Amino acid sequence: MGAQAFDPKLIVYQIIALQCLYYLVEGGILMGFNLIFGTDVSMTQIFTPKGLEVGSAEGLLNVIALLLSFVAGSVLLCVVVERAKKCLDFTVTLFFFHFLACGVYESFPSTLLWWVCHLVGLSVMTLLGEHLCARSELRDIPLFVIDQTTG
């Protein structure tokens, strides 16, 4: 009764929306950090492992921004996908396309820190997204509204 019909067009639109919104959020977080701390804004911060270096203050900010964007991505999952059982699929798809974008931008990531950060972020985004979606799915559906003003 509650099952939705398979709609590939909707799935493609959701993937595109999630990917675009994720990059918008990550870029916004990086822009905020860059404005606060006076560093340069670059696509390298998003698409190369060079940006993720815990040895420098800028690299550490990039790691924090990446992890914050995965937390924000879990909220995006709740808004765009709306189903707890689809969170893992959409998160892995987001990660896969990000991996491909990194490969096209420069080269496929080979540093351990890049993989650790992204796998931790992927796990956080999936689990938190499933939790948020499950909470919204379990909310009571109001059947009728009682008007308190007409006594």
Textual characterization of the structure:
The protein has 151 residues and is mostly helical. It has helices at 8-37, 44-47, 57-80, 87-105, 112-137. α1 packs antiparallel against α3 and α4 runs antiparallel to α5 (112-137). The radius of gyration is 19 Å and the shape is globular.
Count up the helices. 5
Give the oligomeric state of the chains in this entry, treating copies of one chain as homo and distinct chains as hetero.
Answer: single chain
How much β-strand is present in the residues? under 5%
Q: Which structural class do the helices and strands define? A: mainly alpha
CA gyration radius, whole angstroms: 19 Å
Uncertain stretches of 5 or more adjacent residues: none
Mean pLDDT: 88
Q: What is the number of E strands? A: 0
N-to-C CA distance: 37 Å
For the sheet with most strands, the description reads: none
- Could you estimate the helical fraction of the residues in percent? 55-70%
Topology pattern, helix = H, strand = E: HHHHH
Please tell me what the overall shape is: globular
